[in-house]
Design a protein that fits this description.
The protein is an alpha+beta fold. The chain has three helices and four strands; from the N terminus they run βαβββαα. Helices cover about 45% and strands about 30% of the residues. A four-stranded mixed sheet has the order 1-2-3-4, covered by helices on one side. The longest helix is centred in the C-terminal third of the chain and has 27 residues. The protein is elongated, with a radius of gyration of 24 Å. The protein starts with a strand and ends with a helix. This is Ribosome hibernation promoting factor. Belongs to the HPF/YfiA ribosome-associated protein family. Short HPF subfamily.
Length: about 120
C-alpha cells in the first residue's frame, strides 16, 4: 500500500513516514485490495489534525483524528479508519449471501391445495 503524506503547517520528516508505515502495515495485510492511503497532517491553533482518505471496493472512506500531540492523533484516525473498513467489508460480505425468495400468493395457494391437509 502506498502512503501519500502531506503536511499543512507541519514539517513532514522521515521519522513520521516510518511511524505511518509501521502503523498502517497491519491494515495493508487485512485489506490487501487497498492501493493507496492519503494522509494529511495539519496543525491549527496548537492542535494536530490527521485526515486519512482511501478507496476501498468502490467506496471513498475517510477518517480523522485530533489531539494536542501528533502521534495520538494518528492513532485515533487509524482506529476510526479500521472501523470504517471493517464496516464496508461486512457490507460487501452481506451482499454475497443469497436473499430469500418470496412466493407469490397464487403459487402459495396452489401449494396449500396440493398438500391435502385433511
Amino acid at each position: 500500500m502506498k502512503i501519500n503524506l502531506s503536511g499543512h503547517h507541519v514539517d513532514v520528516k522521515d521519522s513520521i513516514k516510518e511511524h505511518l508505515n509501521e502503523k498502517f502495515s497491519k491494515i495493508a495485510t487485512h485489506f490487501p485490495t487497498l492501493i493507496s492511503l492519503d494522509v494529511t497532517i495539519s496543525k491549527e491553533h496548537g492542535e494536530y489534525q490527521v485526515e486519512l482518505r482511501t478507496n476501498y471496493e468502490g467506496s471513498r472512506i475517510s477518517a480523522s483524528g485530533t489531539n494536542d500531540v501528533m502521534y495520538p492523533a494518528i492513532a485515533i484516525a487509524k482506529k476510526k479508519l479500521e472501523a470504517a473498513l471493517k464496516h464496508r467489508k461486512g457490507q460487501l460480505k452481506a451482499d454475497k449471501h443469497e436473499k430469500p425468495v418470496s412466493t407469490t400468493p397464487e403459487i402459495a395457494h396452489e401449494i396449500v391445495q396440493e398438500m391435502k391437509l385433511i
